[in-house]
Write a structure and sequence with these properties.
Elements (H helix, E strand, L loop, with lengths): L10 H20 L2 H25 L2 E6 L13 E6 L6 E10 L12 E10 L5
Antiparallel strand pairs: 1-2, 3-4
Helix pairs in contact: 1-2
């Protein structure tokens, strides 16, 4: 079953939203047209980033490859492939996170370890 994608606001986005709300509330209370115009100009990048973030993640395929055999003295290395299936647009700065869960311990004893990799740029139709 596919996981539902979540949209979260980052710390910087939260502060940007606070500044935007302060400008819009101040513009509304003081009825200043230039401040209202500034509020709409500030709202543009926020709305664009919300829609473009969903759009950019829509045609990506992520594959995790484990080694076929692993001995006790070997290091586990996992290959992560990210494929951009888009025909026109490149994708920049994609972070992929994975959770490593140990089966040999009790369920609550060890929380899953978070492992991540950053892909700086993926061209169109590239892996």
């Amino acid at each position: 079953m596919a996981r539902r994608r979540q949209t979260r606001l980052t710390r910087e986005g939260f502060f940007y939203l606070l500044v935007l709300l302060a400008v819009v509330i101040g513009a509304t209370l003081r009825q200043l047209n230039l401040l209202i115009l500034l509020g709409t100009v500030l709202a543009g990048p926020l709305v664009f980033s919300l829609f473009y973030g969903r759009f950019a993640l829509g045609r990506l395929r992520i594959e995790r490859r484990l080694p076929p055999l692993l001995r006790a003295d070997q290091r586990l290395s996992v290959d992560v492939q990210l494929t951009n299936l888009r025909r026109w647009l490149d994708v920049w700065s994609i972070a992929v996170e994975d959770a490593v869960v140990r089966d040999d311990t009790a369920a609550g004893a060890n929380p899953p370890a978070r492992v991540g990799v950053l892909f700086p740029a993926i061209g169109r139709r590239e892996t």
